[in-house]
């Protein structure tokens, strides 16, 4: 989809972090927006600020783990704007911790929020996109979905699922004008969920993990739609060579990635450890 001006995007998780930054970035491109999240107040603040740019915006309070909320989100969006051309599955939660200490509810919520909700939203949106003959889906994955680090199995599994979701949808729907991309950011050091990890550990990520910015992630989303790219990894230093190495030489890649990342994620997990009773 080369031109975004005049089109409408639906972004989940737009009340803070990357989703909020992306809503403003897409408004700059001349797009109208449907923005969704649970917190009504923060969502309305984002909507009010975007309206000042001259773009139309519909805020919809939705818990993406509830199928009824997702159905209502899609039907409200189509009712208001008639055509939704872009869906960004961005809502997400992280659950880095010692795996055997993660509460079952948190495990299930991680998969439901990050993965199940995205699959369901694609299923709800694609028939509309096929009818319109146009659509692009962006799934906000993570570098953790390219190779799972220690202490984040549910998060990594959900993000790996998003990457294959995009691949599978591209393969099935591109000849009908619908495509999909995965964005795989590293930690954003200027807002978003990494702030919680920084507060927990009192540390920035080490060099070998690196980081990025919400601006770079937003630019990658726009580029992925305009150039119809399957996947963009957004991180500094670049991670694709490491992941490619791990693809070619799994044992060596596993050794390098787990050894260079484990210490940091152990620190995150230990900061969350419950005090002994
Ligand atoms: N920032 C990073 O370092 C980083 C790196 C890699 C990937 N990512 C991915 O980028 C995406 C955005 O993360 P972020 O860093 O911007 O985090 P964030 O600031 O915590 O934002 C998460 C967004 O998801 C929404 N959300 C969470 N649970 C929801 C639910 N059940 N229903 C509806 N909305 C829900 C939140 O809104 P409410 O709480 O108002 O519902 C919020 O708007 C996530 O998918 C994350 O995994 C982030």
Task: Give the arrangement of secondary structure elements.
Layout: E1 8-12, H1 17-28, E2 32-37, H2 40-51, E3 57-61, H3 67-81, E4 86-89, H4 104-132, E5 135-140, H5 153-173, E6 178-185, H6 194-201, H7 214-226, E7 231-234, H8 240-248, H9 250-271
Parallel strand pairs: 1-2, 1-4, 2-3, 4-5, 5-6, 6-7
Helix pairs in contact: 1-7, 3-4, 4-5, 8-9
NADP nicotinamide-adenine-dinucleotide phosphate binds next to helix 1 and helix 4.
Structure write-up:
- By secondary structure, the protein is α/β, with parallel strands linked by helices.
- It has a single domain, classed as 3-Layer(aba) Sandwich (Rossmann fold), CATH 3.40.50.
- It is built from 9 helices and 7 strands.
- The chain is globular, with a radius of gyration of 18 Å.
- The site of NADP nicotinamide-adenine-dinucleotide phosphate has 30 residues, from helix 1 and helix 4.
